[in-house]
Every structure is written in C-alpha cells, then in structure tokens.
Amino acid sequence: MSTVTNMSRVDAILAAGRERLEAALKAVAGPVAGFALFVLVWQVVAMRIPEIPTPGVTWHAAVELFSDPFYDNGPNDKGIGWNLLASLERVAVGFGLAAVIGIPAGFAIGRYAAINAMFSPIVSLLRPVSPLAWLPLGLLLFKAANPAAIWAIFICSIWPMIINTAVGVSRVPQDYLNVARVLNLSEWKVTTKVLLPAVLPYMLTGVRLSIGTAWLVIVAAEMLTGGTGIGFWLWDEWNNLKVEHIVIAIFVIGIVGLLLETLLVALARRFTYTEE
C-alpha cells in the first residue's frame, strides 16, 4: 500500500513539474520568437541597405565596446559606462527634485478646494508643453548645460506626480475623512494615517509615468546640450559615422528604460491593494 502511495506522490510531483515546464516554455516561446523575427527583419534590411550594420557586425562591436566600458581619455572621450552613469545621475537628481515638490503639491491640490482652483489651470496649461521647450529657459537661467538638462528632467517629471497624487487624494472615500474628523485627528495624522495609504497606488503610478518620461527626455536633452551622457555619446558616434554604436546605444537606452519601468511596476504592485 505504501509503495502505491509513494508512486502516486512521485507521479503527482512529475505532473506538476511538467506543468511548470510547459508554462515556462510557453512564457519564453513568444518573446524568443518575436526577437528572432526582429533579428531576421533587421538582417534583411541590412542586406538591402549597406549603411545599416547587420546583427552580427553590431554584436561584435558591442563585445568590443563593453570589454572596456569605463575608459577615460578626457572630457569628450569616455566609455559608454561613464556616459550611462552620467545620464542616470541627471535623471536621479531631476526626478528626485520633482518627487520632493510634486508629491506634496499633489496632496495639497487634491486636499484643498481653494488650492485646486488656483493651481489646476496652471498645471493643465503647462503639462502639454514639450519638455525640450523648457531647455532653452534652463540654459538661460543656469548658464550651464548640466543643470539645464536636470531642469528639463524636473519639469517633465513633476506633472504626472502632481496629477496622479491629486486624483488619488480626491478619490479617498469621504467616510475615511469623517471618521478622522470624529476622532479629532490632526492634519498631519490625517495625511499620514488616512490619505497616504489610500493614495499610495496613485502616487506610485505617477512616479512610474514620470521615470519613463524622464529617461526619454534626458537622451534628447543631452544631444542638444553636449558634455557627458548617453544622448551626447549617441550623437557623437553619429558624427563619427559609427552606425553600429548608434544601434548599440538604442538597445542600451531601451534596456535601461525597461529595467526602470519594471522596477517601479513591481514597487507599485507591492503597495497596491484591493478593497474587499
């Protein structure tokens, strides 16, 4: 009897293993097939247009490029690693400033009708403006390329944080606020104990949207301002007619953007809850 029971357990374990393997293969098969099709189309286009490097040429260039990504031969000749870190540093500073200002501003706009009436039209007016339109103003104000690029990141990152946070505050059930009023809670406790837990998913959605926009903008801003950064490096490689390096830069920008997006999506899911 025990032998039969053990065989049944083994069969169940094997069946569960097969199911997990099949699920994993199904999950991987789609992306692998899609990427293979992409590489095939890329190869066909490169064969018809000689100026475009083939996947093989690009791969060999990438291996060589990443064999020493942190070399430093002067201000205008640094490895792709240093340029990528410079871009991430600008994004972190501009994005951080936007969070420090934008999230409290969103709370205030969503919480108080008078502040909402004053500032909502301004946000609605300035939000559609292209972030790069703010770059000349940043150059005028700061007289330097690096703070101007950070300014562009800041101004493009702040609007999603303000809007999503304000929407989250405005959607907090009135019952929650009525209970807080009955308990005579201070405004600080209302904000931290009642509003913040309910608004957090909205706030993190704004943060996720902001980081994607910030990463898009920094590349374009660095192309215009020069100096160090992945955008400047990409433009410099175009001036040097190294098209394979341009393709590599595109993949690097995409991968970093995807990683940032994935990280913040995971963070948003961690703090999102559903009401029973």
From TrEMBL:
Biological processes annotated in GO: alkanesulfonate transmembrane transport; monoatomic ion transport
Say yes or no: keyword DNA-binding present: no
Care to name a GO molecular-function term for this sequence? nitrate transmembrane transporter activity
- Name the Gene3D superfamilies on file: MetI-like
Q: Which Pfam families match?
A: BPD_transp_1
Residue span(s) of domain ABC transmembrane type-1: 84-264
Which CDD domains does this entry report, sorted A to Z? TM_PBP2
Indicate yes or no for the key word Glycosyltransferase. Answer: no
Q: Which InterPro entries does the UniProt entry name for this protein? A: MetI-like (IPR000515), MetI-like_sf (IPR035906), NtrB (IPR005889)
Q: Could you say which protein family the record assigns here?
A: Belongs to the binding-protein-dependent transport system permease family.
Identify this protein by name: Bicarbonate transport system permease protein CmpB
Name the encoding gene, please. Answer: cmpB
